[in-house]
From TrEMBL, chains A, B:
Name the UniProt record assigns to this protein: D-lactate dehydrogenase (cytochrome)
GO molecular function, one term: D-lactate dehydrogenase (NAD+) activity
Coiled-coil region list: none
PANTHER family xref list: D-LACTATE DEHYDROGENASE, D-LACTATE DEHYDROGENASE, MITOCHONDRIAL-RELATED
Span of domain FAD-binding PCMH-type: 35-213
InterPro entries in UniProt: FAD-bd_oxidored_4_C, FAD-bd_PCMH, FAD-bd_PCMH-like_sf, FAD-bd_PCMH_sub2, FAD-linked_Oxase-like_C, Oxid_FAD_bind_N, Vanillyl_alc_oxidase_C-sub2
Organism: Harenicola maris
Keywords for the protein's UniProt record, in alphabetical order: FAD, Flavoprotein, Oxidoreductase, Transit peptide
SUPFAM superfamilies: FAD-binding/transporter-associated domain-like (SSF56176), FAD-linked oxidases, C-terminal domain (SSF55103)
Co-factor requirement: FAD
Domain of life: Bacteria
The keyword Flavoprotein is assigned to this record: yes
Assigned EC number: 1.1.2.4
A GO BP entry: lactate catabolic process
């Protein structure tokens, strides 16, 4: 067997950092989503770029699939080794290699998590802003082009990755980007590998843009009569150029579970959660102006806070929304949708999604990064009701298609993995076959995360 | 001849919008830089995507080179038809196809110029922020990944192009990106074609992100004793999170020519030109805080202005710096460098550049988009002194190499064209050969702007 041969050779390189223990395989065969477990044949824990390069040289010599693993929080089965092979777990490549406060950038290994980086940065007055809620690895976040609550102000991983070191399928090591703030030098390889979900190369170093910790932060929560009012308040705020650092939407159902789990008082209504970053003066001004806009659209039950504890409690509630919702349905799992549309279409998209859910047998909760036009619905699957999974998947498909009808995308931030593969042709047309051409160019043997993003035998 | 055959067939499609008149060929054989004229064999003026697709089908059938042309202001011979063939001039594809104020985006044909777009947008309260000074076409700006004075606040073309329609080498038409604010759907083809200088496909539609016209603008000019003081003032301002919309550097020599040509009073010293966008309160606050920082670094001779006429005069002076400098050397041409480095290295880079110029026989002027770490030196070539060109090119090469030593890039915004080709291997190593692989995948016949960005026969 070729995979077996690769494992033998890899063991010579990695020693006990190449494992085939059942517990390790099982752990790396699971995902956050509803996909059946598919363990790899072995798990490798490289410590250096050189070791990753050796892994690729050996695996390409033996046509052995290689699937990268960050923290495994991706939601579309991205990191599942569906063709078997080697799972490369980046946990041991977790060094922060350089922080340059003057240039507000840093270089990290891919196994560094977002929270570990921010803990390390605390004393510098800087922070890394992209915040997907989960304490994901920066390699995984780069590879899914992740974003989250702060993208409306600070952008997504696309905007915050300045350069990469990448090990190619044949083991060659390249560098993309530079430490300069911008570059017009050749094709944008940094962007090509960002969001490629480990199908074009393995990322071994990431140079990230950092931001100054804001001098002042103020946050607020407020209720609206309808989704439309809430979304229109957001559109107006953006148009007025009021710089929001976060602006999150919770529908009535989500507000109810968040309230129940967090103890934070929320009305039975759609809510916006907002945050402003800046100076004392500017955040106060932004807050006032936002308050006026919200009031114009019937916003009520306003609560402002510039106290760190209160703010943390608010965002903790938001970040735990996924788990709070599942906790309200013990024993159930979920399907998470990720439509993203032009913001003028968002109220309509969310209202249609709500109707679809209400007409279906499964419970569903809607929340979203409303400043980006990105909403998630979490659809609940009861394992005792076999019809739920099919119903939830049909609902999710319909919401993706609706996003396309509204000139949006089937995934604002989670990525394709396996779950969204069936919709790629619909979204991209001939451009999907161009993606397949690029994949074949960079990975002619199809050993890098096969079966994801592009067609398996395309 | 294959090119002749292509011209015959193209005439059937385009009629008199395919021309071989000498004046037209000559016009499209010139560039802003020092390259010898190289006229194409014919110039095509398509009116639609369908016509561009037909052009590519015909030209690929006959192995005929195709070079796109926007307004021809690129500075590295980008749009020169060095292998002959068809120049596709996008002037007649100059329609603004859609503006959506609610979503703050628009879709344009590639021949629309930046100024035409902003004139059209005036009544909407929106504007398109990327400003390379020259009134370039949006197709050209996309293809060079242009930026300019406002990138420090609003980003470059990379950050403002949301999606593209592209005609591939074989005539197929694809769409990249969506109208959603972000997407994790597959490989980032938008970024791949942005900055590809027409070597991977012809761009026929561009979806752009727009911004709200700021409620208030304030601008200032101030003098410093040294480059280092000026740059350190900028670094501190950025670290404090004071949001600058523009921050430009002029060295002593540039200040002198700008003063002479514009009549604006400037001391014989390095200067910073700054601008803040926001509300009345926030711009006033930003201005005060910047003033404090500048003073700390010895800034003097401060002049603030929030009057539109005064501001226009200031930026007109900055935008005309290139022409003002050439006007000070009648009959001469110039070589423009475009190094971009981590901002902590900028003072050193500029000071070294100044020394190199002072030790050389050619006069040189330094200015830059200092908030991005990007500086240009304009090196003057006297046609009567044949040694000047070689000296200027050697200087330019040295400055590019220095940018690489400082972990920067050989081009922050102008692109590669032909002028920077000899430095690509040094900047990118094996990543340059990956670029060559991508080029061969998308343009296997090497008919799209051959000889640019990647190796001619790589
Ligand atoms: C409760 C919850 C909330 C979430 N909220 C958000 C959100 O708000 N926004 C958001 O964007 N996402 C969100 N996610 C999804 C998930 O957190 C992100 O997709 C995250 O970026 C995945 O990171 P990871 O380290 O877990 O990657 P993994 O799941 O381990 O891997 C993701 C993909 O990247 C590849 N990969 C990993 N490391 C590398 C590497 N070094 N080189 C090449 N390829 C690599 C893997 O092969 C896989 O294809 C959420 C998930 C959960 C469970
Ligand atoms: C005085 C002066 C100041 C300048 N200042 C700046 C500055 O501050 N910042 C900056 O970034 N640049 C600057 N430039 C350079 C220049 O303005 C930019 O490079 C600009 O983006 C070129 O646009 P264009 O329409 O003139 O493109 P062109 O020169 O016509 O073409 C540029 C490249 O794009 C390709 N191209 C054009 N249209 C298409 C299309 N539709 N599809 C595919 N490929 C296409 C061409 O083949 C060529 O390779 C300056 C130039 C001058 C003369």
């Amino acid at each position: 067997m070729t995979i077996a041969q690769a494992i033998t050779e890899l063991t010579q390189v990695l020693g006990d950092r190449l494992t085939t223990s059942k517990s390790d395989l099982d752990l790396h065969g699971q995902s956050e989503a509803y996909f059946p477990p598919t363990p790899p044949d072995a798990v490798a824990y490289p410590r250096s770029t050189e070791e990753v390069s050796q892994i690729m040289r050996i695996c390409s010599a033996h046509d052995c699939p290689v699937v990268a693993w960050g923290t495994g929080t991706s939601l579309e089965g991205h990191a599942l080794a569906i063709n078997g092979g080697i799972c490369v777990d980046f946990t041991k490549m977790d060094k922060i290699l350089r922080v340059s406060p003057e240039d507000m950038d840093c270089t990290v290994q891919p196994g560094v998590t977002r929270e570990a980086l921010n803990t390390d940065l605390r004393a510098t007055g800087l922070f890394f802003p992209v915040d997907p809620g989960a304490n994901a690895s920066l390699g995984g976040m780069t590879s899914t082009r992740a974003s989250g609550t702060t993208a409306v102000r600070y952008g997504t991983m696309r905007d915050n990755v300045m350069g990469l070191e990448v090990v190619l399928a044949d083991g060659r090591v390249i560098r993309t980007g530079t430490r300069a703030r911008k570059s017009s030098s050749g094709y944008d390889l940094t962007a090509l590998f960002t969001g490629a979900e480990g199908t074009l190369g393995l990322i071994t170093e990431i140079t990230l843009r950092l931001r100054g910790q804001p001098e002042a932060i103020s946050a607020a929560v407020c209720a609206f009569d309808s989704t439309e009012d809430a979304v229109n308040a957001v559109i107006t705020t953006i148009q007025m150029g009021i710089p929001m650092a976060r602006i999150e939407f919770l529908d009535k159902a989500s507000a109810a579970v968040c309230k129940a789990q967090s103890g934070i008082e929320l009305a039975e209504a759609p809510h916006l959660l907002v945050e402003f970053h800046g100076s004392e003066t500017s955040t106060a001004e932004d807050a006032t102006r936002f308050g006026e806009v919200a009031e114009e659209f019937g916003g009520t039950d306003f609560r402002w806070s510039s106290k760190p504890e209160e703010r943390s409690a608010l965002w903790e509630m938001r970040h735990r929304a996924y788990w709070s919702t599942l906790a309200a349905h013990p024993g159930c799992t979920g399907v998470t949708t990720d439509a993203c549309v032009p913001i003028s279409q968002l109220a309509r998209a969310i209202e249609d999604a709500r109707k679809l859910i209400d007409d279906s047998p499964v419970p569903g909760y809607i929340l979203g990064h409303v400043g980006d036009g990105n909403y998630h619905s979490l659809l609940i699957i009861d394992p005792n009701k076999p019809e739920d999974k099919a119903a939830a998947k049909a609902l999710a498909k319909r919401m993706s298609e609706q996003a396309l009808e509204l000139q949006g995308t089937i995934t604002g931030e989670h990525g394709i993995g396996m779950g969204k593969l069936p919709l790629m042709a619909e979204q991209h047309g001939d451009a999907w076959s161009v993606m397949g051409d690029l994949k074949r160019t960079l990975d002619p043997q199809n050993i890098l995360n096969p079966g994801k993003v592009v067609q398996q035998n395309g």
